Predict the 3D structure of the following.
Amino acid sequence: MATIESLLQAADLPDSPSPRLDAELLLAHVLGKPRSYLRTWPEHVPSAEQCQAFAECLRRRRAGEPVAYILGRQGFWSLELDVAPQTLIPRPDTELLVETALALLPATPARVLDLGTGTGAIALALAAERPGWQLTGVDRVDEAVALAERNRQRLGLGNARFAVSHWFSALQGERYRLIVSNPPYIPATDPHLQRGDVRFEPRSALVAGADGLDDIRLIAAQAPAHLEPGGWLLLEHGYDQAAAVRELLETAGFGEVQSRRDLAGHERISLGRLP
């Protein structure tokens, strides 16, 4: 009879960059236990049904499906979020947007907009940290807005709301102290789109034209009409796009334009302030 430890040792995930971690997450999910349980009770014998469910999870992972989609959830900031194939999987790099936004504004009341909210990760992280802020998250995909709302309800965050909007299309006349976005920024011909987890993520959340900057161009150009005087725009972008994004912000009339580096040392976000 297979024990927890023998199942983990036999787990075959040759193409995963973290095979043991993936196997532990999947087995803990099947057992309905935290990962610590696997180390505490390695001799436990899962049921036949649990072994079969684990084998199916491994099959899906070997086919390249992201662990987050198999589990239906992903951690981001201090939150545990439901995820689905209609949305991008929240990534640790994007936490730099949250960290920077929190540092830019005081905890006093402010209206903040998250463009392309997906799971609601950025908006909900900011709402959790700043109860005095009013967060609005928008996405053009109905299923993403519904998912973000489910996450909001489960987390009990009353200072956030979500709506369908293609960037600013449904926000006429609305102004914010801060606008933050992790938009699509991958060039259409980037070979990485055919590798790893991104193969399973929605292309519309990843790709933005020939150079990856189409959506950032639109946001930078239209954001000034939706910012309060002195308001900030924060954008995540590709590791090699910072100079181009700074130029777009300056062309749009932003001052105090700068970029911030992620933990790997890449210029991952750029920001500017409306005069």
Q: What stands out?
A: The chain has a mean pLDDT of 92.
